Amino acid sequence: MTIADIKKTTETKMGQSIAAFSHSLSKIRTGRPSPALLDSVQVDYYGSMVPISQVANVSLLDARTLSVQPWEKPMGAKIEKAIRDSDLGLNPSSMGELIRVPMPPMSEERRKELTKVVRTEGENAKVAVRNLRRDANESVKKLVKDKLASEDDQKRAEADIQKVTDSHIAEIDKLIASKEHEIMSV
């Protein structure tokens, strides 16, 4: 493996860490409803647990309500129970075949709790990026130790890896700030 390979692999993995962080942020509830909010809810579908999106169409009904349209009629009650039993604090109601999921307004205290969750998730993402930096630097040091690269190459590579790390951490900070703003806006 060359230094260029190490840099490329590290940058790819850091990008994947940011993508995972971004995905976890989409599950954190803000003031407005999002169909992605129900992605984590699992429904019993003929003996196996599957996400709601695989047994129903989830969409926005209006600014404060999600609608869940089951593809099979008998699934309605199971979906409603799964949403009610989830830790999202939602209270769905059936209207024929359509399940309405009204979003209760969030209190100021709950908003502050959610910003703490966002910061914790962000810190975990930063730790993952820093671990990738450490692994890349160790791989470069191993190349120098095995005499496959010079010490000058090592210094340049470590500086480049640090620049990539700094840019990814800045991107994580931007995601945290935008999510906090989204949560705190009423």
TrEMBL record:
One of its GO terms (molecular function) is ribosomal large subunit binding. Gene3D superfamilies: 3.30.1360.40, Ribosome-recycling factor. GO terms for biological process: cytoplasmic translational termination. It is found in: Cytoplasm. Coiled coil: none annotated. It holds the Pfam family RRF. It comes from the Bacteria. Residues 22-184 form the Ribosome recycling factor domain. Keywords: Cytoplasm, Protein biosynthesis. Its main location: cytoplasm. GO terms for cellular component: cytosol. InterPro entries: Ribosome_recyc_fac, Ribosome_recyc_fac_dom, RRF_sf. Responsible for the release of ribosomes from messenger RNA at the termination of protein biosynthesis. May increase the efficiency of translation by recycling ribosomes from one round of translation to another. Belongs to the RRF family. PANTHER family: MITOCHONDRIAL RIBOSOME RECYCLING FACTOR PSEUDO 1 (PTHR20982:SF3), RIBOSOME RECYCLING FACTOR (PTHR20982). NCBIfam families: frr. This is Ribosome-recycling factor. It comes from Limnohabitans curvus.
